Amino acid sequence: MRKKLFSQLWIYFVAITFLMMVIVLSVFVGLLFMINHFQLLAPEREGHLFPFYFIIFLSLVIGAALSVFVGKRILQPIGDLRQAMSKVAKGDFAIQLKEQQQMEDVKELYHDFNVMVKELSSIETLRNDFVSTVSHEFKTPIATIKGYVQLLQNEALSPEERQIYLERMLDGTQQLTHLTDNILKLSKLENQGLGLDFQPFRLDEQIREVILFLQPKWEQLNLTLDLDLPRTDYYGNEEFLYQVWLNLMDNAIKYSPKNSNIYVHLKNEETGQVLTISDEGIGMTKEVADRIFDKFYQSDTSRKTKGNGLGLALAKQIVELHHGTIKVNSSLNKGSNFKIFLPNNLKTS
């Protein structure tokens, strides 16, 4: 693409330069013919130098007109691109160039620039979210642990109080461990990519294991689980897919009110497996749903609910590495529905 772009621009520039030379040469040949035909350079004639002045003036006009033309068609787009790049260098990622250009090369160049700026904007948003989330997620448990360490230095504490403080310190360390584990898992997925180890296993049994693991949570809220999990043999990465169901089920429980329902239905289709996990919880707006799979994104900026904005991003990454899709359909205060599709053709892909 780059060689093609440079080659087309070079041809365009050579064509314009050649056209300029032809026009200037034609004008001068025509003027010389007129001078010779009407004998305008005869010394005996009054004002015989006027043709020279006229030729000089006409040359300046033609040169200026062609310069403006070349500048507008070639140099001006380059100048606009330079100014836009200067704004991006200063941190302005909202700048976009108009792609409606007559030159196809300039149109492609502007399109690539706009795509680049959008990607940089996404990276900047991710960086800001990362700094905000990680700093908060690390700061809170560390401060908690520090506080309880100081309290434990009090020799007058009863054994019961000492045990409570130790348990709270343990909660803080588990919170830090969960955050670092998710960051490492995301990094591993992004770096290893398709190097995951795929093996056959029972998908329905794995989902049941997740539900049993989370039983204390959904029993505490008196939630009713509507399960439809037919026998399903699947070929994929068992370890990472377990994390997908764990994150989705944990979210469904966390955002569900007491005495509500959660639906977990697995359907075997000809092309793959479709799992839907629905709840009757708080739901989310369209704006939140559009960003729910972004890394470190949390709709609850007050951090009243536990989490670090990595669970759904991790789930999406794992599903996509299985060539599948994960989608969410949600309405505020009406619950959320997550639909995951996993294809059957991983052995041959």
TrEMBL record:
EC number: 2.7.13.3
Catalytic activity annotation: ATP + protein L-histidine = ADP + protein N-phospho-L-histidine
Gene3D superfamilies registered for this protein in UniProt: 1.10.287.130, 6.10.340.10, Histidine kinase-like ATPase, C-terminal domain
All copies of domain Histidine kinase, residue ranges: 133-346
Keywords of the record: Kinase, Membrane, Phosphoprotein, Transferase, Transmembrane, Transmembrane helix, Two-component regulatory system, Virulence
Molecular function via GO: phosphorelay sensor kinase activity
Protein name: Heme sensor protein HssS
